[in-house]
């Protein structure tokens, strides 16, 4: 039962409840906390240094209200140092506005089915954030994002989320943010799914120095019944491996504007003859009601856009004004991707010598139909146990 209106339970990482909400909270060795160490052992990619709220206190959300005592919003507003946020029970939280996630925080939904409706999470100028095992459904009611990582955020790990139906995007990494990993997330029933950096000026490279620092890893994510931007990537350095893309209506991935990307071991599956699962239209911030069902017949041949195609026309139009020294295309290392159904390869290596090798070990798997099935089963807010270990022992 959700205890609406109750104070969130405050626990230090030795597992003992705190009698006074304002008391000091002792820290424990990360390795001595099973529910912490179990999760941290799964980190990979550019966001592998994120430890979230490890070493601080545990706050247990007890209320499914939008705000007030015991709520997720209250827990985020009153972190006062590293905080690991957990949930007392299954709950659906209808949000009235976006939740802001500060630095040194974990939002850990393991063990319960936790769903956020209408709004999602804003990670702005924050460092050291982990978000895992949540469902975030925009219901196409607000012009917002499920997860917006922006304004110089860094060391962020987004893991095992189920994200759908936002009128803007499901996930952004932009405005000087870097060192982000997105893993085992299910992206579905959405139009413009993911933007890794974005153009904010007629001069396409005006913010290049700020945004080229972006380093993002995407692995074992499931993109299904989407339209486009799975992802759309510009400027930064990106590593995409072992992701599954199925049944996009317009195109799969896009790379452009001097991005540097390793695209390996991904699985693309689509067919030109299938029913359209889009709503009658997707609302847009431009006020245009968009539908892409008519593109399905050609979608399998667009596993990606041609390298740079998303920005080539604008580049050519504005180049005489700004005399660009950067390429409208991305430097690409492309290998070992699997194409199923009528899906076809589009991109190939382009200036691969410019693409940095991933500076970390990672659990790469050969792309097969069995891997695709495992991603379908395990990506998203999948609860495979009745709660992760809840206490710490020394």
TrEMBL record:
Keyword entries, A-Z: Calcium, Carbohydrate metabolism, Lyase, Metal-binding, Polysaccharide degradation, Secreted, Signal
Signal sequence bounds: 1-19
Gene3D superfamilies to which the protein is assigned, alphabetical: Single-stranded right-handed beta-helix, Pectin lyase-like
Its EC number(s): 4.2.2.2
Main location: secreted
Source organism, top-level taxon: Bacteria
Record carries keyword DNA repair: no
Protein localization: Secreted
Domain Pectate lyase: 54-274
Top-rank EC class of the record's enzyme: lyase
Catalysed reaction equations from the record: Eliminative cleavage of (1->4)-alpha-D-galacturonan to give oligosaccharides with 4-deoxy-alpha-D-galact-4-enuronosyl groups at their non-reducing ends
Cofactor dependence: Ca(2+)
Pathway(s) where this gene product acts: Glycan metabolism; pectin degradation; 2-dehydro-3-deoxy-D-gluconate from pectin: step 2/5
InterPro entries: AmbAllergen, Pec_lyase, Pectin_lyas_fold, Pectin_lyase_fold/virulence, PEL
Family note: Belongs to the polysaccharide lyase 1 family.
PANTHER family xrefs: PECTATE LYASE 18-RELATED, PECTATE LYASE 21-RELATED
Protein name: pectate lyase
């Amino acid at each position: 039962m959700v205890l609406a209106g109750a104070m969130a339970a405050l626990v230090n990482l030795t597992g003992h409840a705190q009698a006074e909400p304002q008391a000091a909270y002792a820290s424990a060795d990360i390795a001595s906390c099973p529910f912490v160490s179990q999760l941290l052992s799964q980190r990979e990619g550019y966001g592998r240094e994120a430890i979230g709220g490890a070493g601080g206190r545990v706050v247990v959300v007890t209320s499914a209200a939008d705000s007030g005592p015991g709520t997720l919003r209250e827990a985020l507003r009153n972190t006062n140092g590293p905080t690991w946020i957990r949930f007392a029970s299954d709950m659906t939280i209808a949000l009235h506005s976006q939740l802001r996630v500060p630095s040194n925080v974990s939002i850990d939904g393991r063990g319960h089915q936790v769903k956020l409706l209408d709004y999602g999470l804003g990670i702005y100028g924050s460092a050291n954030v982990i978000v895992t095992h949540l469902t975030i459904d925009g219901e196409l009611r607000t012009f917002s994002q499920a997860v917006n990582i922006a304004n110089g955020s860094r060391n962020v790990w987004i893991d095992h989320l189920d994200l759908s139906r936002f009128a803007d995007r499901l996930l952004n990494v932009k405005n000087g943010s870097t060192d982000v990993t997105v893993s085992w997330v299910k992206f579905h029933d959405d139009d413009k799914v993911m933007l890794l950096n974005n153009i904010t000026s007629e001069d396409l490279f005006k913010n290049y120095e700020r945004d080229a620092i972006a380093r993002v890893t995407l692995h074992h994510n499931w993109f299904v019944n989407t339209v486009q931007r799975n992802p759309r990537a510009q400027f930064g350095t990106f590593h995409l491996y072992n992701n599954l893309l199925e049944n996009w209506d317009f195109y799969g991935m896009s790379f452009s504007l001097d991005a540097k990307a390793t695209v390996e071991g991904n699985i693309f599956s689509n067919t030109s003859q299938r029913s359209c699962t889009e709503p009658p239209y997707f609302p847009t911030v431009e006020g245009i009601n968009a539908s892409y069902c008519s593109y399905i017949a050609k979608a399998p041949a667009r596993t990606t856009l041609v390298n740079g195609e998303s920005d080539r026309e604008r580049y050519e139009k504005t180049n005489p004004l700004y005399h660009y020294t950067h390429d409208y295309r991305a430097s690409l290392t492309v290998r070992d991707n699997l194409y199923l159904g009528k899906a076809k390869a589009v991109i190939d290596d382009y200036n691969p010598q410019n693409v940095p090798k991933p500076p970390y070990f990672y659990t790469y798997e050969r792309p097969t139909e069995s891997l695709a099935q495992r991603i379908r089963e395990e990506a998203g807010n999948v609860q495979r146990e009745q709660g992760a270990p809840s206490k710490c022992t020394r």
